[in-house]
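Because showing beats explaining, we think one record worth quoting, sequence and backbone structure tokens together, and here it is:
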Amino acid sequence: MIDRKLFRLPRCVGITLYILLILFIPSTGGAGEWDPLINKLAADGFQKQWLEQLFDRPEVRFDPSIMTEKMKTLYRTKFGDTSVRRLQQRLAALGYKPGKADGKTGSKTRRAIRWFQAAHGLVVDGKPSKQLLKIALKEGKRAPKHIKIPTPKPGPYVYRSIMTEERLTEAKQFLAANQKILLRLERYYGVPGEIAVGILTVETRLGTYLGEKSAFLTLASMALCDDFKCVANAFKDERMTKGRRRWLKRRTAQKARWAYGECKALLTYAQQARRDPLTIPGSFYGAIGIAQFMPSQALRHGVDGNGDGVVDLFVMEDALFSMGSYLRSNGWRGSMRSRRKQRRAIYNYNHSRIYVNTVLAVADYLE
């Protein structure tokens, strides 16, 4: 029988050990992992007690997948996609002439894919996919020379999911129901109602889809993910050179700094709009409101369109007038009718040519 008295410690020693355990055992989860971000935001002027209460709420959880997806997208744009590169190599081996195996889907690669799809009775769209790669890897026959290769329909590429009868009817009905405010928008900023409705149609389906994630949690998670180690696992299958690793480290840190600036702007916007930061929905990368503004742009271009003293990008009048303010600051001049200049201004709203094509296609339909 062991005498437990032998294992009892004096009270003062027990208290000392307890304090040491608290100080030196690392925190597991909770607000503790957010401390670097909380301290940084507090140093930039936000009340620390308010921040601690905000980050201590149960729904606040760190999500590294957002930064991971962003870095994967940037990496593929810079260095090409591994699966596309493998598809190019396989198509070249079979004689489909996809051009250089660079992992990027250029015109030669799209033509080679259409050729392969036509030869195998597949849907011909010229798009690479993992399923297409599986089929190509199993194929042993050389490319048939005498076969008609379907070509894409002439005209600008657009988002087909937008240019449907259902979506265009929604846009037409919205235009008719909001004539008064759209005429005010054109009078103040020169932006025709058809263009404005085109942008809202593409961005948020006229305000009916605002995002499923908390914009604050998205941006806070990206801001905290400032070390490449946070996303390194996503690149374990890549042929990583020292140069590419350096590039990834640099770009991850840059994106984290960008996200921190947007996180600060979102907290400021939430305070000015009298909103709980955690209840503000956003896109996958943190854009907010009916017209999808990044928080820093909301602070810079936000307009109180309905005159209630608050800029609220989830209110239609404020969203439309903020859009007009942004477009005017980025190239829209008066009742601008030059299609080339219109394209340039809309491209500044979203740096995507297919986006611009779709907005203008919706506007043309409404006109």
